[in-house]
Amino acid sequence: MIKSLSKEQQERLDKHCIEFREKILNNNKQITFDEAKEAIDYLYKFTGQTNKPFIIIMNSFLESQLAANHCALINLSLGGSQVESQVRSQVENQVENQVGSQVRSQVENQVWKQVWKQVWSQVGSQVRSQVGNQVWDQVWKQVWSQVGSQVRSQVRSQVWDQVRSQVENQVGSQVRSQVRSQVRSQVRSQVGNQVENQVENQVENQVESQVWSQVGNQVWDQVRSQVENQVENQVENQVENQVENQVESQVWSQEKVFFGQYYFGLFYESFWLTFYNFWNDEKIINNDFITKWTEHLMKGIFNIIILENFVIITRLPKHIKRDDSGRLHSLETTAIYEQNYIHGVYFEPELWLKVSKRQLAPKEVMQMKNIEQRRIAINHYGWDEIFDYFDKKLINKSNRNSKAELYRVKGLADGIEINIVKYVDPSTGRMYVSQVPDVDDYNKEILSADHAMAWKSYMSLSEYQSLNVEA
């Protein structure tokens, strides 16, 4: 039994974590349909699933969530009453026949085949013969209109508005509310649960027992801790969770249901993929599923949503922009998918543009309602630029040539007041603004401007006051 990692093993672990993390974060492969089908076929065969789901690939996590809602509606519709031929022909004549050819001529073949063949032609005949009027209208609206986020940008706006108007008029908020509660019941599908449980039973439990039989507690905890710190915290916690939280908010705001993730997807599985691949590399275990499933995910799978008749795959983002601390961040473009972040805080596109380009007046920055966004904006603009607009109270002035002034400021965070010191650089005459703590390194309360400047200069108050020249 291995009771401690050798120096060579530790070096390999360091290299393994860094390389695996960077492979995930810098992977911008866009998975193809054939690659996705191969991955799902492999997963379903491994977990004993015999059904053949319809596979849909979306380009962002938000699109996948909307698609999941639409597919859940189709699942619901399969148990409904029959549609009268008159209603069926009316929908076909007004929407399919009149608009289908125009859409087909303007949509890329790949997108058309994905939306039409996977959702429409394979499912449509079953839906048309089994659903009622309201459900049919709702399914048509959801699958055709909103999943058409891939289609919409390529269809003439006049035709699009006409179709949307015709269908939306038939579906009111009451119907959406009723269907939403039914959709929610499918968030944890039977198939998804079975797949997850099988992976957990056949891989996690077996692999854990194999590793535990050959390594001690100390080694297990050491490797686990390092993988958590170097991979999981930067991949799942700082990237995947931020995307998930923001998309969940957007989904609920659109009166849709958020489909929580199963144990599948390159980012969501970053920890255990890194952890168990290390033991595979070290020949402690020899698990073929871990190797093959890693290969499938690395071809470009960000996330997988499993429903009874559908599997919705989210492609990897084409780029991920982060700051030096690993937080999602970009002042030039989206940080990930269609989302804008500045130092880990999400901004709506219009607000992000104004903040990143410093187009807001300082007064407008201080009036931002979201405290986290306001804090980021203040730091981006610079405290000296915003200082005059702080809600502040002067505490003390210095008589030294720094002309330092200590202020108590509130409003930068909810229910919190902080110390701010404004001072002049004696060498250049430039004014600066800095935050200082409530107490110094000797646990003495900072109540004067000189004390604040002493703390900034890494001195005690008495040491600072003994200075003859300040520059």
Explain this structure.
By secondary structure, the chain is of the alpha+beta class. The chain folds into three domains: 318 residues, no CATH class; 60 residues, no CATH class; 76 residues, no CATH class. Helix content is 55%, strand content 11%. Strand 2 and strand 3 form a beta hairpin. The protein is globular. About 18% of the residues have low confidence.
Number of strands: 9
Shape: globular
Radius of gyration: 29 Å
Q: Spans with pLDDT under 50 lasting ≥5 residues?
A: 80-133, 142-160, 162-175
Helical fraction: 40-55%
Structural class: alpha+beta
Order of helices and strands: HHEHHHHHHHHHHHHEEEEHHHHEEEEHH
User: How many independent structural domains?
Assistant: 3
Mean pLDDT: 78
Describe the biggest sheet?
4 strands, antiparallel
Number of contiguous helices: 20
Give the termini separation: 62 Å
Strand content: 5-15%
* Biggest sheet, spatial arrangement of strands: 6-7-8-9
